[in-house]
Design the sequence.
């Protein structure tokens, strides 16, 4: 039997090879065949999730809700010391220096990353901005969001902080962060589907032990992680409740 | 809960006797000093089913002026400001427990130093195996316009 593994489409392209190496590591650890299926489109991946195509998912906090509460997935690990934070960014030429300087009619450029978009819309609320009085253009990648800002085709751009940090120096010189979220308790999580749950403990222990070997450390680095941290079901339930409160 | 201490308070203050829904009361000291919630911050807390705080994030600690040790184990109404009319929270339990919905509203919170901060608060019940095991509350920065509207409304309800 081949198990199917996927990663939330908001992964940084620099770590693409890292996820393939991780997939190979999974096969060696479990003695099972794993197929890594990567998407650059949130909607397409969500459709595949709805059709129960996956057994292992590195999920963003937003999708984790459906996977855990409706699809019976269980959390096993998350990257240690990492939380998902979002940023609202403008062009460096923009004279506005704070959120409250933004006004209705704002042109937003964003990917379809659901948790980033949710967090960024919340950060616009102090300026009385919402979906009702702003216009959003969706891009396929964060690089394209940056381009929209630089070309003056959008007033603000929404970014996952980690991805913004990885933009080239040349690109970042042309941008100006207005605000960055400090939520501290939202993160991506590795979730195991029902067909793989008989290997849960074994897989969790192998993930947590990755730092013990040079090869494991190197693999973690290729994903930009320092280590995997144990996640208990209640940790993820808490995060899902929290995401739920944000959707008002 | 203990009365607030003058030594904790910053600036001029007035004394108010607060009566809470569980029959307890305490004297709070209230100043006019506002500490606005910085952009991007979310205050997160969790309580048990009785409203006793079980979890706080760093933003909660920073904005409330209490340490996490001072907050955990205390009733959430430790933050209740006397300018908040009881009627503003009237629908909270009904919304959460009877209707199973989220409760949200604009809330003026009391700091340990007697000052205050405004938030837009959302509360949901944490349901596990069909049982309410607690509540999660997230507070975010409201617009000035919304704060002014809430302030004007609450004055008429006190």
Sequence:
């Amino acid at each position: 039997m081949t198990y199917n593994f996927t990663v939330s489409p908001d992964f940084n392209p620099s770590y693409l090879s890292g996820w393939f190496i991780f997939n190979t590591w999974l096969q060696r650890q479990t003695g099972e065949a794993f197929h890594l299926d990567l998407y650059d489109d949130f909607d397409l991946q969500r459709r595949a999730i709805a059709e129960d195509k996956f057994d292992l998912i590195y999920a963003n906090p937003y999708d984790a809700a459906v996977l855990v509460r409706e699809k019976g997935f269980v959390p096993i690990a998350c990257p240690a010391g990492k939380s998902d934070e979002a940023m609202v960014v403008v062009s460096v030429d923009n004279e506005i220096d704070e959120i409250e300087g933004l006004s209705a009619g704002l042109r937003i450029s964003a990917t379809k990353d659901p948790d980033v978009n949710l967090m960024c819309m919340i950060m616009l609320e102090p300026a009385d901005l919402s979906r009702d009085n702003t216009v959003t253009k969706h891009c396929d990648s964060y690089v394209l969001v940056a381009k929209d800002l630089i070309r003056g085709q959008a007033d603000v751009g929404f970014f996952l902080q980690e991805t913004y940090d990885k933009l080239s120096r040349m690109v970042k010189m042309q941008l100006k962060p207005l605000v960055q979220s400090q939520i501290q308790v939202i993160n991506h999580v590795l979730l195991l589907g029902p067909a793989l749950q008989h290997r849960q403990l074994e897989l969790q222990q192998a993930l947590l032990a990755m730092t013990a070997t040079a090869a494991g450390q190197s693999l973690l680095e290729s994903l930009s992680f320092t280590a995997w941290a144990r996640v208990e079901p209640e940790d993820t339930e808490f995060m899902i409740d929290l995401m739920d409160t944000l959707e008002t | 809960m203990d009365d607030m201490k003058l030594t904790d308070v910053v600036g001029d203050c007035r004394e108010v006797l607060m009566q809470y829904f569980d029959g307890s009361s305490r004297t709070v000291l209230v100043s006019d000093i506002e500490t606005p919630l910085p952009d991007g911050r979310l205050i997160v807390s969790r309580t048990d089913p009785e409203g006793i705080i079980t979890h706080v994030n760093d933003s909660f600690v920073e904005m409330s002026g209490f340490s996490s040790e001072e907050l955990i184990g205390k009733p959430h109404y430790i933050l209740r400001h006397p300018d908040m009319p009881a009627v503003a929270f009237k629908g909270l339990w009904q919304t959460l427990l009877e209707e199973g919905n989220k409760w949200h509203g604009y809330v003026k919170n009391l700091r340990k130093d007697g000052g205050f901060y405004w938030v837009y608060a959302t509360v949901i019940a944490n349901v596990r195996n069909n049982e309410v095991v607690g509540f999660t509350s997230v507070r975010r920065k409201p617009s000035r316009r919304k704060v002014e509207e809430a302030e004007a409304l609450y004055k008429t309800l006190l």
Summary: DSSP finds four helices and seven strands in chain B. The interface with chain A takes residues 38-42, 44, 46, 55, 57-59, 102, 104, 120, 122-124, 126, 128, 136-138, 140-146 of chain B (CB under 8 Å). The domain at 34-157 of chain B is CATH 3.30.450.20 (Beta-Lactamase). The mean pLDDT of chain B is 93.
